[in-house]
What does this fold into?
Amino acid sequence: MRPSRARCAFTFVEMLAVIIILGLLAATSVPAMTAIDQARQAAASNEIERLLIWARARAMASARPTGISYTKSGGGIFSSSGGGVIGGTSAFFTPVEVLRDAATSTTTTDVFGQVSPTLDLPATFAGATVSRFTNGNATTGVGTVWFNYRGDPHTRTPTGVYIAPFTQDALFTLSTGRKVRIRMYSGAVEQE
It folds into this structure.
């Protein structure tokens, strides 16, 4: 009888079976990861829409101009042509209002006097960024979408002084192409 040799390696068939199984697992997990990213982007645009609808409703309920201030920070380049910060890594949405007895804008507070939270879009929805913002007065980059007591959108100075009604729809475009539009005549907020 021959002495048995101990196996020290895997056979070709065993290696082939493992590679096929890993390939099948990879093929089924990629669509799932894509679906997760798409759901995150949809949630981000839903949140932007919700904030704008909230600001419009608050302006109509309180009879105070209320808006959502959109700013960027971190890694961006400031545009000297009035476009604001371009390519920033953080996108902030802050609820603001003009108080009745003040000529300046301030962050909003709830019924308990607590300051309304600022939404940091990429921190809340990983990978979600605003690639372009066009305000209702045709400026791009950063700015505030304001609503009056009738829910009509308009523009104001950074201190809250009224300038003019919108001359076009305002539009937030996310990096995936999802859009949130504010209609210039009605103030309706909708996704595209």
